[in-house]
Amino acid sequence: MDVLTDNFSLYGKGFLGTVELTVYSSALALALGFVMASFRVAPVGSLRVLGTVWVTVLRNTPLTLLFFAVLLGLPRFGLVLPFQLFAVLALGCYTSAFICEVLRSGINTVPTGQGEAARSLGMSFGQTLGTVVLPQAFRSVIPPVGSTLIALAKNSAIAGAFSVTELLGTYRTLNELGYSIIWTFVWIAVGYLIITLTISALFNVMEKRWGVAR
């Protein structure tokens, strides 16, 4: 317990850093994932190509490499941001590719006839997607979206290697102070467990309220 009680503020700072990364990156991932899923099912060919390229490139790029690309590449184009924002961009864009595919799979579960019926009533593609298809698709993708965001929370540990304050990075300071590395990682694991269980509980509540009955 000494590792935790003697360094509670350090653990707290890292824990809050991981929570912030998770929340901001999740918001970006959900927004971009929704846009790209819309592109992938759009009637416009160029939008479908853009969505496909986005998903293919990001899903097949190691996250660490994407961090390097964002942190080292964007400043070359004059975009200089705090490291935390760079980390949010990398995590959010990477996870958006997986969110996109989850949403697209949910969209594919909606019977085609419902979309055709909406269009026969004069509804545009955007109206059909927003008022008919997505509300039904959302109900079926709650569990996989939750799992994807849990993976995002754990992936945020990579940000510590790029000077971003987060939970895993606390081990370096504690190791230098001579604390047991085993207990250091035990309390780090407890912190991640709290975050992931909170996300899981939130999505369990959402599934019980809005999910498809099985």
UniProtKB/TrEMBL annotation:
PANTHER family recorded for this chain?
AMINO-ACID ABC TRANSPORTER PERMEASE PROTEIN YHDX-RELATED, MEMBRANE COMPONENT OF AMINO ACID ABC TRANSPORTER
- Top-level taxonomy: Bacteria, Bacillati, Actinomycetota, Actinomycetes, Kitasatosporales
**Chief place of localization:** membrane
Membrane-crossing residues? Answer: 21-41, 53-72, 79-99, 181-205
Give the UniProt keywords, A-Z. Answer: Amino-acid transport, Cell membrane, Membrane, Transmembrane, Transmembrane helix, Transport
Hey, which family's this protein in?
A: Belongs to the binding-protein-dependent transport system permease family. HisMQ subfamily.
Compartments in which it is found: Cell membrane
Keyword set includes Membrane: yes
Q: What topology does it adopt in the membrane? A: Multi-pass membrane protein
**Which Pfam families does this chain map to?**
BPD_transp_1
Question: Which domain of life does the UniProt lineage start with?
Answer: Bacteria
Q: What is this protein called?
A: Amino acid ABC transporter permease
- Residues in ABC transmembrane type-1 domain copies: 15-203
